[in-house]
Design a protein that fits this description.
The complex is a heterodimer of chains A (about 350) and B (about 100). Chain A is mostly helical. Chain A has 16 helices and no strands. Chain A has one domain. The chains are: A mainly alpha (about 350), B mainly alpha (about 100). At the A-B interface, helix 2, helix 3 and helix 5 of A face helix 1, helix 2, helix 3 and helix 4 of B.
Chain lengths: ~350, ~100
């Protein structure tokens, strides 16, 4: 791509969510979302490949529908209450429609069909941007309107997305689709706690960003796109491959690792609010995700030599040094003891 | 619900239904998207009548500008897809399905 065009696209990709986050006026928030959507489409469609074009068309259609639905609910709210303030959107019908539109932008459960397909059609770095940076603006808007959201609706949506994130990932062999379903399940955890405590939503979001970034950078470095190449990827960087298992277990939320921290706090908060059945259900549903994380770890790490293997090995290329990866792996696996500090800061 | 409110509401709902249910060609989907954005433009322009305030023309212009950008992006995607897929059948976009 032309470097000038690339610079403009990247800067507006950064600028769009910034406008949305800092704005107090609904129209400016919508403009930020639109700028972001207009900037990401050329990046998705950069490879002139049928799959990239299809992914960008699917992304464009869902995001355009979601943003026009958001604008419709904004204007309904204005016609009924007469003001554009984000935190004051009190009309019930428009807040329900806003929930639908923002969850469509996020890729939550009933509106999730675009997410795995879009992620499958793009490169790993675009997957990284789509699963982390693109979630920032809609999630911030959801957190800003959380006074007027419907708790039972959000809890239903999040239980559904945990379920679909777990069940959908079971049948996949492509790592990026598995990461998409894991993203759906994590977003379910975030919206579960949204109306009860926004601080925990933020903490879950930060943890999710750290874990997903580490996982996708590992996938990028090992150049594994599917299970069958994950099996032979240990020849490229054996230590990184071993660490990938820790990272996957952290994504699943096993106790001494970082991913356990938000799940623990969310379950505690749900129990405090007498939602014991919902807490139990969500804890059980996270086992579905654990299954496919363990399957990736089994293929990539647990069946390593000295076992006899009968598959052909990959070429040992020159080892690329990524100085940021050790830091990110440490952050994504050993951050649980820092939890009291988080609780004091937030 | 005033007649003005009802008219833009119905315009939006009908075009949204068309957007969701009409699955043959990409260009008609883009036209439905434009109809949605135009009904929202009209709603924002008529907002001062409902609220009995002074007219403030920035919001409709912003909406119109961004809907034009969105339409141009949609048309460029139509051109890009016409090189790789049959643009007259959205069911052909099935390379990435699970």
């Amino acid at each position: 791509m032309n470097p000038h065009a690339n610079m403009i696209i990247m800067s507006s990709l950064i600028l769009g969510p910034m406008i949305t986050i800092t704005s107090n006026h609904w129209i400016m928030a919508w403009v930020g979302l639109e700028i972001n959507m207009l900037a990401i489409i050329p990046l998705i469609a950069k490879q002139h490949h049928p799959r990239a074009i299809e992914a960008s068309i699917k992304y464009f259609l869902t995001q355009a529908a979601a943003s026009s639905l958001l604008l419709f609910s904004i204007i309904n709210n204005v016609w009924n209450t007469g003001q554009f303030d984000i935190t004051q959107s009190t009309n019930t019908m428009s807040s329900t429609m806003m929930t639908a539109a923002l969850t469509m932008k996020l890729g939550l459960a009933p509106f999730h069909y675009w997410l795995p397909e879009t992620l499958q059609g793009t490169t790993t770095m675009m997957t990284l941007i789509l699963t982390t940076w693109q979630k920032l603006a809609p999630l911030t808007l959801l957190m800003m309107i959380n006074q007027s959201l419907n708790t039972s609706l959000l809890v239903t949506l999040s239980l559904l997305s945990m379920m679909i994130g777990g069940w959908g990932g079971l049948n996949q062999t492509q790592l990026r689709k598995i990461m998409a379903f894991s993203s759906i399940a994590h977003l379910g955890w975030m919206t579960m706690i949204l109306t009860l405590s926004t601080k925990l939503t933020l903490l879950t979001f930060y943890t999710y960003i750290t874990l997903t970034t580490t996982m996708l950078l590992t996938i990028k470095l090992l150049e594994t796109n599917k299970m069958s190449t994950a099996m032979t990827s240990w020849t490229k960087s054996p230590m990184l491959n071993a660490m990938m298992m820790l990272n996957l277990m952290s994504l699943a939320g096993l106790p001494p690792l970082t991913g356990f921290m938000p799940k623990w706090l969310i379950l505690q908060e749900l129990t405090k609010n007498h939602m014991t059945i919902i807490a139990t259900t969500s804890a059980i549903l996270s086992l579905l995700s654990l299954f496919f994380y363990i399957r990736i770890a089994y293929y990539s790490t647990i069946t390593l030599p000295p076992n006899m293997t009968n598959y052909s090995q990959q070429w040992r290329h020159k080892n690329q040094q990524k100085p940021y990866l050790p830091l990110m792996i440490i952050t994504s696996s050993m951050l649980t003891p820092i939890m009291p500090t988080f609780m004091m800061i937030m | 619900m005033t007649p003005l409110h009802l008219s833009y509401f119905m315009a939006f709902i009908i075009s949204m239904t068309g957007f969701m249910l009409h699955r043959t060609s990409l260009i008609s989907t883009l036209l439905c998207l434009e109809a949605m954005m135009l009904s929202l433009f009209i709603a924002t322009s008529l907002c001062p009548i409902q609220l009995q305030t002074t007219s403030f023309m920035l919001n409709p212009m912003l909406i119109l500008t961004f809907s034009a950008c969105e339409a141009s992006l949609g048309l460029s995607l139509l051109v890009a897809s016409s090189r790789t897929h049959n643009p007259n059948n959205l069911q052909n976009l099935n390379l990435l399905q699970c």
